[in-house]
## 1
Amino acid sequence: MRVVLAVSLVLGVACTNNPYPEKDDGKKVLYAQYHEPPKTLDPAVAYSTNDHVVTGKVYDTLLEYHYLKRPYELIPALAEAVPEPQERADGSTAYRFVLREDLWFQEDPCFSLSGGETRRILAQDFAFELMRIADPAVNSPVIDPFSNVRGFRDFASRLKERRAADPAFGRLPVHEQYREAGGISGVEVLGEREFEVVLETSYPQILYWFAMPFTTPVPWEAIAYYDGQGGRPAFADHPVASGPFMLTRYDKQARFVLERNPNWYGLRRPEWKAPGAVFPEVTGLAPEEAEKFAAYVGKPLPFLERVEYRREKEPIPAFTKFLQGYYDSAGVVRESFNKVIQENDLSEEMRAMGMDLERSVVPAVFYIGFNMDDPVVGRAGGERSRKLRQAMSLAVDVEEYKRLFMNGRGLPAQSPIPPGIFGHDEEYQNPYRRVDLQRAQKLLAEAGYPGGVDERTKRPLRLTFDVPDTSPESRLRFSFWVRQWRRLGIDVELAATTYNKFQEKVRDGAYQIFQWGWVADYPDPENFLFLLTTEMARSVSGGPNTANFQDKDFDRLFAEMKVLPSGPERQRLVEQMRSILERERPWIELFHPEDYALTHAWLRNVVPAGLSIPTTKYFDVDPELRARLRSEWNEPVLWPIFLLFGLAAAVIAPGIVTFYKERQ
Amino acid sequence: MLAYVVRRLSYGALVVLGVLFFLFVLFFAVSTPDDIARRAIGDKAMPEVIEQWKINHGYDKPKWPGPGQWSDNLLVEHYRRMLTFDFGRSDADGTPILDRIAKGAGPSLALTLPMFAIGLVIGLTLSLFVAFFRETYIDKAGVFLAVLGMSVSVLLYIIAGQFLLGKVLKWFPVSGFDPAPGVLWRFLALPVAVGVIASLGSDVRFYRTVFVEEIHKDYVRTARAKGCGEGRIMSRHVLGNAMIPVLTNVVMVIPFLFTGALLTEAFFGIPGLGSLTVDAINANDFSTLRSMVYISALLFVVAQILTDISYTLVDPRVRLE
Amino acid sequence: MSRPTRREETAAGAGVTEAGASAERGTEGAQAEDVLLRVRDLRTWFPIRKGLLRKVVGHVRAVDGVSFDVRAGQTLALVGESGCGKTTVGRSLLRLVPVAGGSVHFRGRDLLALPEQELRPVRRSLQMVFQDPMTSLNPRMRVRDLVAEGLQSFGIGANEAERTERVAEVLRRVRLSPDHMRRFPHEFSGGQRQRIGIARALAVEPELIICDEAVSALDVSIQAQVLNLLGELQADLGLAYLFITHDLSVVRYLAHEVAVMYLGQIVEHGPTEPLFALPKHPYTQGLLAAVPSADPSARRVAVRVLGDVPSPADPPPGCRFHTRCPERFEPCDKRMPEPYPVGDPAAGETAEGRYARCFLYEP
Amino acid sequence: MIPSPPLAFVPQLAMTEPARAALTSNLIVGALLVGLALAIRSIRKDDVWREAFQQVWARRKVPVVILGLYVFVALLDSVTWVGASGALEDQVAAHEARSVLDRMFTGTTEKSYSAPFATQEFYDASALRHPRRHPLGTNILGQDVLYMTLKGARVALLIGGLTSLIAIPLALFFGVSAGYFGRRIDDVVFFLMNTLASMPSILLLIALIMAMGRSTLSVCVALGVTSWVAFCRLSRGETMKLREMDYVHAARSLGVSNVRIVLRHIVPNLMHLVVITFVLMFSGLVLSEAVLSWLGIGVDGSWGQMIAQAKDELSREPAIWWNVTAAGVALFGLLLAVNLIGDALRDVLDPRTLRERG
């Protein structure tokens, strides 16, 4: 009996499911979760959304996107203004960036190299980062968009030659190597706060790249200091930056912590009321939206003191913790959390908890691609294969898929260009992107496979659908598509391989059908349509055109469209390209996903953004409300302990009694 | 004794070398260094970048020894690095593997040690209890419950534990980890409870058999005839003499205390070695996987040697040879 | 029941026929006498390995220089305490354990020198009956298959039916019903099981059967039955027995000659009656004194044997028995005694075949 | 629905791949059944075994019947042929090899989730095509969960059975060779065993599956490779004991060859261990596969996979509980039956009790 009492006493006092120290309860701390750790935090390399969870918060860029305006609009950040292109006589285009005055890096031990705890941000730091992108040793994934910068490739090859020729050169600190190699001629530093980027040919999309962490200022001290030697972490794990938050703890496998950066210009100079440093005002919002933000407009950012990230590998515990109030939002990290939503809206229960659901279409497209190099489904099959692709496209019911796997979230795609991007046409209905089984069967018969059986060989048509994910959940998803085609009699085998094996197959061209997605880097149709150009074909250049689609007309139209400013002429070109895709069907466009943010009542100002843009600095939490609701929702239930003890005693006692009676 | 220990140690070393050879064949047959490099730095990487990466990670050598390269090849390199614990960097994200392992060992042990100790105590107690009441309905029910417990997948235990104790009854955090001493136990309580319960079935089943076998032996009858109390018989004689099979069972488990519990750690978000292994599997991070297998094998061999030596300490009947 | 003659047998038996002939038909081989088995200086040592490299640091001298003869149709009993190496002698003869040295001539052929292939046919003439009838019979085999195994192995009998017929015959001979053929060993009593073991040995028509404690595990009444059976078989078939036992009363009942073993060596050897009547070696004296006699008048002076048997891994120097010998004197712990003839013509004994390994009898 | 009699193949088609697969699979099933029949026959002839199985039957009637049901369901899902029958959902099914079980559940698919015995869909409340026809509800793709669960029986038996069939002969071969011949062979086998045993089996499994590619067979082979060691060790030890038994000496003195001694005297006396190991190994293998499934390298269609798929569905609100429950209960039922039978078998066949009885 004493044991029972003791146990219940201990449990009663100590039982809590709160995973955080109580002392933080009253603070403006945001609790968030992540599934996969970032691979790298080096801004020249980091490209995935996992990386962006950190890089998007710690690195500041010259330009950024307006938080509330759609379509997306660039606003100045570290730069004083968004520069205008200046056409030059030699056909090149120049962009001149002028930095705000009095910009500082965060404090960091690496600045001991230049004799201080921090230092001012100079134009040179931007040039340095651009050189790092060019540096082949850094292996940046975005060399391509910048190779238009004058002298960019030259710089890379000079660097490579010098390193190959002279091992001593290769051992110099990186910034000295760059200086010795002479820098990029098209990046001219005109002063401490001014520099110019010169493009060989017109490329209006270049400005978007200056709103991404790739082009953040990087101090040479950080690269020289954080080399991963002598107990110092590598730069990829230790950002030295200037953004609104700084990384103060980084166990990337388990948790990381971001804290407000006192050196951020928004905090140092609130009087500037710089766009992006105060909460923006927007006219034309729905009244209830406007009301929600009213109290915040014009207030200096960031509102949060700290952001705590915890790793959650499995969705169930993560979501349970969200429901218990221990995560402030869900659904931003992994889409499986959104399954709580019924038919496009929150369930009753969620609404009763005061939750809020924010949705926005992500500028992204998911598609099923055909390998156009394949003899059966690809170019070589000519008309026959085209009809087969058209038939398969007609059988795929995206609405149903959305309903089953995405809770209705997302828009069925008609073309590669998602809403919010120039060239998207609300009215356009792709004739091959609606479900029409009869027409599909007819086309299939015309292609020579009536009922899915090859007329010539009398064998059923068998195709292979390669998927790079072996998880049981994904198998369900992919088998949905397979079932769609089975309705036509096409037997598609699902080959689930590891990512490794999948890459091998893609490299060898040994694939027929695959599913892939593309998320916009920036809001421009060029960023989508280039995925289907010959130049980018996997079999030609190893580019992202995994479908290996090659069409001369398409390439020509693309080259024209790319440099035009958005307007009717450009629209016409996009439509022409669209009609080529419509007929050729290298892709079955599936959907443009929608981003759902499920937030608790105490989390404010959450506006989901499809692009990977920094939004956290706009968020605010109400710690009192959070503490109250948490304790309401998490009262431990203790009576089962007593029940358990009672039951055990009741079952065992008679046995013991009889045993001893018999013994005597 | 010394000769025995030395011989036992050298055999252990031989086994470790065998494990390393097996690992070499397995991992370098699965994926060539080119594959590993491409996976790590992306498909688009230029050939010279891949070469550089291979050099950085020490994969830029021929696989097997041959004329002119007897010491400069992957096999020798593999042995050299593993034996000197120079595991290099993870294929997946370039962090030093030894660091990751060192970091993961703490949380893993924090989870597995209590799980092991509590499990052992409860398992032994319950099985002694059941063995004591052998042939009564308590025994039958106990054995049945044990078999019942053995038949449930760990996955279900974890899912049910989180659902019941974390979500419905709200006793403990559903998942998470914080090494701060005041709150650590909060995070461990649930996974430890689930781990103990999940392994209780087979443990009770095993230990009970050992105990009952021991109870039927002559010396127990003698002790009873001498008027020894039942409790004393169970605790002194039976438990003491059953130590060998119990010890064997226990020692076999010890290495896995270090390697952590794959599923438990993943589900409960404990950043231990099990978690690390799952990450490595999901990321095809062979270099980490290789080091983990090697370390576990090493621990296992050491544990085995310790068992063999401790046999002689626990049971005077066991001779050295 | 007639015993089929060897002439009818198959080719597998040819080697035997050539090497020697059955006792009834006299001598054709190299051995002019009726000696069936001649064992000389048999040594069976088990290596002791120690240390890092498992080097052989010594040997357990289980059998260390044993010599004896077994004559056709006669019984030699090998007696001694447990652990003296007598069982190892039996196994060494059949090469069931590796032998270190010496020679075992069976009808003039050295079994130890033969390769396994050539040994096989000889095995047929040399069979063994084991101590524990439970462990010597495969519990998973039926009686018929157990007994027929040798027939099959040596290719005796043209087909299965013929072999079954032979098994039935042999079973009848050991007083078991052929109806029992389809049963498993565990369905029989201990005595019956031992008969099955004898039947198995008998089925291949051996000339010599090594009985390794063949009756020790049986109840006394059953022992007598089995011993009678063995006696009858000897009379009928002219079998020779090497009877290994620790039970002296059995020896007296059965054996023509006795060899007493101590610590791997034969310490005394001689015809049964004289040896029992007047043991020469102090060890034999002690051994016999320990046997309770039914005849109180025949009570001898008790000879005290002191202490425990030393380890065969580290036998004492000199006479092996000197550590326990009540008659120990000066040379005993220095030199190893030879077997000295001890026949006492005065008592009407012949010196032939009677000797003891003791300095008391050193000429 | 009663399946139509085997039609062989759709007439206008040549011998297609599915048809060939169906034939092969049927042949394998046939061979297994013949093997089973032979095994039962030899058990009936052998008193010891017959008695043992009679005792197990007397003590464990319910588990044996349950296991029999599982086997029956697996057989239903194993006998396949190509040919149309029932209301086909799609045209591919017409030239696919489908089992009796497939045919029984043909045309029962819904659009998506529905609760057990529901009349309408779980989410959008539209009427079901087959109301009240799904005792365990339907999954996200509208497949009948009862059907999916029943299909899992074959997979589970395949995992446990096939793997044991790979591992046990292998272990027996090495274990007996090492134990009987000793010396060099023993050294090599013992070393191999120690090497394999010192690697954590789950990691070894993963590495092997990655090396061999992901398929049912390779999962079984990998499980076999990782699980043979324990039995190898056991049979080696037991062989060493048996080698010194007098009946083995007797056989040698009868000039019986080593191979024959091993086959007639050693292996039959290990058979009870084989049976016990087989049964006890079975449940371990099926449980291991569940873990592999969670890691994404399990066998398609297994209960482990169903559980892994369904665990996310539990986090829906309201939760989809019938998937995980069905798979969990089916898995649990099989393992409980097997474990209880194994328990009884061990008691009955334990060598100690055997010797005492003798």
## 2
Amino acid sequence: MHVLKTMLRQPSALFGLIIVTVVVLMALGAPWIAPYSPDNQMFDGLSIEGAPLPPSTRFLLGTDTLGRDLFSRLLFGARTSLVIGLVANGIAVAIGLLVGVLSGYLRGAVGGLLMRFTDLMMAFPALLLAIVLAALLHPSLWIVAMVIALVNWVQVARIVYTETRGLVERDFILAERSLGAGHLRILFVHILPHLMPTAIVWGTLGIATTVLLEATLSFLGIGVQPPQPSWGNIIFESQSYFQAAPWLVFFPGAIILLTALSFNLVGDALRDILDPTQRGRG
Amino acid sequence: MTMSAPTPILTVRNLCVDARTPEGRQRVLHDVSFDLISGETLCIAGESGSGKSVTSLSIMGLLPKASLQVASGTIRLGEKDLVALSNRAMRSVRGGDIAMVFQEPMTSLNPVMSIGAQLTEAIREHQGPEGGAAETIARQMLDAVHITEPVRRLTQYPHELSGGMRQRVMIAMALSCRPKVLIADEPTTALDVTVQAQILKLMRELKQEFGASIILITHDMGVVAQMADRVAVMQNGRIIEQGDALSIFENPKQPYTQELLAAVPRLGAHAGNDAPPRVSAITAPSVSVSPAPILQVRNLDVTYGSPVRRLFRGMLPAAAVSEVSFELRPGETLGLVGESGSGKSTTGKAVLGLIPFTGHVVIDGQNIAGLSARQMRPVRRSAQMIFQDPYASLDPRMAVGAAIAEPLVIHGLGDRSERDDRVAELLRHVGLQPDAATRYPHEFSGGQRQRICIARALALQPKLIVADESVAALDVSVRARVLDLMLELQETMGLAYLFISHDMAVVERMSHNVAVMRGGRIVEMGTRRAVFENPQDDYTKALMAAVPIPDPRARHIA
Amino acid sequence: MLLLVLRRLLQTALILLGVAAITFLLLYALPADPARMIAGRSATAQTVANIRRELGLDQPFPVQFWTYLHGILQGNLGRSYAQKTDVGALIMARLPATLILMAAGIFVEVVLGLILGIIAALRRGGPVDRVVMMASFVGVSAPQFVVALLLLYVFAVTLGWFPMSGFGSAAHVVLPAATLGILGAGWYARMVRSAMIDVLNQDYVRTARAKGLSSARIVLRHALPNALLPIIAMIGIDIGQFMGGVVVVEAVYGWPGIGQLAWQAIQQVDIPIIMGVTLVSALAIVLGNLLADIIAPLIDPRIRAR
Amino acid sequence: QETPKQGGDVLITYKDDIATLDPAVGYDWVNWSMIKSLYSRLMDYTPGTPDLIPSLAETFDVSADGLTYTFKLRKGVKFTNGREVIASDVKYSIERAVNPKTQGPGAGFFGSIKGYEDVSGGRSTTLEGIETPDDATVIFHLSRPDATFLHVLAINFASVVPHEAVEAAGGDFGKKPVGSGTFILKEWTIGQRLVFERNPDYFVKEMPHIDKFTVEVGQEPLVALLRLQKGEVDIAGDGIPPAKFLEIKNSPDGAKMIVDGEQLHTGYVTLNTRIKPFDNVKVRQAVNMAVNKERITRILNGRATAANQPLPPAMPGYDKSFTGYVYDVAKAKALLAEAGFPDGFQTVLYSTNTDPQPRIAQAIQQDLAAIGVKAEVRALAQSNVIAAGGTEGEAPMIWSGGMAWIADFPDPSNFYGPILGCAGAVSGGWNWSWYCNADLDRRAVAADSMSDPAKTIDRAAAWGKIFTDIMADAPWIPVINERRVVAKAARMGGSDKIYVDPTRVINYDAIFVKQ
Ligand SMILES: Nc1ncnc2c1ncn2[C@@H]1O[C@H](COP(=O)(O)OP(=O)(O)OP(=O)(O)O)[C@@H](O)[C@H]1O
Ligand SMILES: Nc1ncnc2c1ncn2[C@@H]1O[C@H](COP(=O)(O)OP(=O)(O)OP(=O)(O)O)[C@@H](O)[C@H]1O
Ligand SMILES: [Mg+2]
Ligand SMILES: [Mg+2]
Ligand code: NI
């Protein structure tokens, strides 16, 4: 409660919270808000020559290259993209934190082995894995989320590993050991909180990149399949139209940006509130 | 108010500093005013947390912007008002006109820069000598602060130095540019008395040679007596009394000042006793039987650096500790004294299995060599450590209350409310308000942090405590309280202390037995009485002689 | 140190072996059939069978993998199915371009990221910080293709400052590297910013200020090295990303890097090329990480004792 | 029509790298026309037309039973390594194309030559059906009449190569080609560019017209277009991407840039006759009626026309009067109900994943939804779609876009065997409808035996009937005939037909620079 109140006092955090709320409401309320079905390819949604239509009163944000209402697609796309951006990315960051912190903390064979495993995973062509999975499984939103988590955790682990190596050498860790703290306690109570800034950077910037990564996977055939909209595939489908129909890139791009940014504002505020060394700042 | 006529070089007037806390602004300095006359040494004494460090940081313009802010007042250095000075102009003042030695040496040195780089940098910045000259000066400065092997030290990193050595590096750094004003915040707190004497001498020389003025912040009335031309006593963010040294020592007006002077331990005060003074009413159960030792150390050796690295670097650093053997029985205190870098902290860490060692260490009947963290767990319950550098040994992201409760949580003692009660009790024991529990380490003064560490170590009611300079940063009144607390615990619970300190008077007061270390070895060990009243080793004798006497008339450092 | 490097090189070999095995297995599991991709629409079933046999695709997995490994041990990456030529030569022909782009791209993003991150950290909470943060998000959420084309449109087509496409001169590198830099700098800026904020609150920075050092020196010499650890790790990661992941930028600027080769090979199920590129980029990633692990203790001496 | 001028350098761009220039191996639409120009073959086509002409052969003669072909070689034709082309080179080249060791995709085209089975089965390396009595004569003995044989001798796989150069290249012939065509490969910087220079000794005077053409690879089509508009590039080989088409078309000099040519292409949806409910002909007919092809051509900005039969309009045998299944939702629904699916059914529609294919698949998906058929679109990489199509019982519907490329040669038979005949309805085949009609197969063989040139018209008619009859069973939904759009600089001359040549893509031999 205290956290929330402190947050509401900061204008940027408030802004972030509002946008996050709006986006979530958009996703939940899509069927009621959307003026059209997101899949409806309207014959008059294209010009006579077959070009998508710019924003107008009829199509608020214009139409796409199949004559579908962009606004409606963005609303429904929020559902997919939030799952990808929050769940998939969240899992990736969580796994990355865990593996990174363990391999940076544990000395000797186990830590080394863990890190080499991460190195192996990192060296491994993730896209190939995605392609094979696409060919072997029936792509669904959750499989996509899983693949993304599988692909992304490695990088987080790498960074966290390096940071942990630095942290472990700090004196207060020695002090904790002298108190008899077990490895788990040192890891979770004393090291993890120091990794919060990194986690927040990845957790929030990662939203944007995973949403786009989902589109790449769509392209490889493992993403959500057409006509189900996602912010990423809306951009990808029409990115070459950025001159002919800029709205097709601009609006989804802006909403991805805004969402990631808002989560970041909230995350930053949260970090500052939780980080005592930053206390007292405005 | 002083009535001295000579021109002051630094004038502080009505300085008020506010702290921003979640509960709103709180004033930590109230109308502090004083002058520093050119060529004099002003000692600021006062209880821990009274605002000494904040005052000095304000002068340097180095208050942490996030939490502390000058609310009003002026600080004049010659023509310049430092409070209003631009950042740029302030830069040339810092380091050049005014230099400062900070209280916590570990965190005040950059961990990723070599000692040499940190030293020469300051020299180059303000004196701009060419190439190698700065290095020469740096080496000379290390020599001046009596660091052994100065050439090698220049290439070392802060974590490779002992606490005292770091402090000396800090001093060398501050002195290297021959500042007009030197602010030294507890500069000798972590130093053994011989080095302390040398440093103090150095500061005097500097003062004489360059007409520099010194603000010396210290809790050690012995040092005050040896150094001060004038003294300011602080309490609760105010200067409650200031005047020239003689009048303060001989004619203290404020009750606090009187109390402060009364509490000063004097070397030899306990001569003739075998054991520390009794502080509790309990009648002695201790001497009756001589129980098995709680700590047995035989042939302890510690060498830093990984074997692989040593192999490839080709140079084997000398062992930090070698062939150390001693025993410690319940209810006993072994005082460990010795020069800085002699391996005291290393010994302390090794006997608790915190760094790799070879040899034999038995705690409470359990040989700890090669035990896993899990196997060590029960041992840790009975053996605790208070680290030399309190700031570095506290998790900066953990509230102080949680930090103190940490050992209770780790060992699964008590429920939440019980723990809270215990934390409050411990805080009170070490002279802090229970409401400190919700604050974070960086919001405390150096002495306050040290008390927090003590509270943490006491939380488990261990049988053995390794106390590494654990009262060094405390002002005498608080120190006396804490020492009494430690003695009381010893008496009631049969606690054993491995008491590492440079302060001979404190060691004398606390110990049953004393060991003197030098160069990683124990050069002399015996009962307190034997060592203090009849020292054999030359080094021990030198130590005794160097202890500052808290009487300005009896200055022996010159 | 030497021993450590040797040990890590051995581990590298093992990692590469692991990567090779997994990749090979995955490709084997892939239902797509390279022989049919080569044969095309009009080939008879017998032609397809012949091609399969000639490529050894009719062999069981262990035999195929062993044959492949055997080749690798002799320094032979095999022959491309579709291009009927030595894979090693194909990769070598494109490796310089990839390395140049990688180096230039990392240089731009690191420099940009450091500058922005430091400025943001110093101006924390102020308008400059907000703008930098916003910009870093724009960089991160912008689709590569669009950014690449926009830059190309503005600086090559409209202003004519740089060539539109190709490889060879320094001018050619500018736009692709700038694109990668813009896209990646956001990450660095954010990492640097949060690490710097942490470091700038440390006591030793206060000491440095007490010495009267210039802000530039304080930031660059005292704060930055302490904040650099995660950045080094990021660079290690980026080496991996760039080896395989800059297909789009390479395509837009006609840059003859390995990404394009890999992309086409994937489309054609040209297994020897996929394997070759995978191994080369795996090697780059492992070496990048190794480098990061070696540099980390150089920056932070506390880690060295380990 | 202006007369071609000699000389000039031309710059052409492609997105994909050139895989190989080995004529026995190369089989994609980009290297197809380059190989055509690097080598010569016994037969060739008049540029811009599907009309066969002798090329390396000076004259030829077909026996009455259609089983023996005798060619007289042109005198004095030289490989670019300086050696004269002789009859044994022709024999060697075709044997090489058939030999399994070459791993060539085109072996099957030579299936009618006597002894083919022995060579392709690895039992022999020489084709007994090719005889070279002297250096200037090549005689082919066929095991069955083959009306397409002259076309076969005109496809790339029949290109004549010098054996010594092949051997010298040691397996890398595809990168070091030597032929006797209009151009010589001068430089190949992998991943960047190929430089072709005219062959000064080419045996046809004033052929080719340009001195040199450079192919830059790895060029994104959108960027290639920008470069073309700036005058850096002469031909954007990949054509105009959909995103740019309207802009260019409506621009002032759009008309000069766009080459819009008819190609031998049909885009279709296969209906897998072995998967329920498409095993029911009524269902197949119903979905045929459900697809609104006009809307799809609009999505493609009018760059295609609606199709109603497998053959494209430019192919001999195309039946202009055939109307196929007209778009009629009501009728489709009725038929579906009749087939026992009044509420429709669920199915899967595969498609490749490059624009505009997924869009077309989605358009079809929406049309099917209108009659209650819920198709899940799976947009996958081409190789995965091909794999799914060739696996029995896997893919109910596949949109062919992006894969059904142009014909190998302009003959209707090329549209039947692999993609609609029984031979293709095998595991790994390209008959993704898994449609096998023995009767039609018989008629196809019969039509292909009509090798007498006099019967060309009849043969075409026979083939035409086969394709319209197939539509009664409706194994496909023929959707569109896509036109090929190439962008070229204004200075490039030559009719549109040589930029969208029915037998090549760009006819490098015939293009020229105007000034
Ligand atoms: N982490 C380390 N790596 C290398 N050498 C070290 C390390 N820590 C301490 N040393 C060295 O070991 C020796 C003993 O150090 P130690 O900290 O035990 O001294 P000390 O007696 O506690 O001194 P002080 O009173 O100044 O704290 C010193 O020479 C020091 O330089
Ligand atoms: N960053 C901060 N935020 C809030 N309060 C602070 C901060 N730093 C110091 N204080 C408070 O200001 C008061 C004065 O602290 P200061 O550090 O000046 O004490 P000191 O006299 O130097 O004590 P010591 O001898 O223990 O070092 C203390 O009560 C301390 O808790
Ligand atoms: Mg202090
Ligand atoms: Mg010590
Ligand atoms: Ni002291």
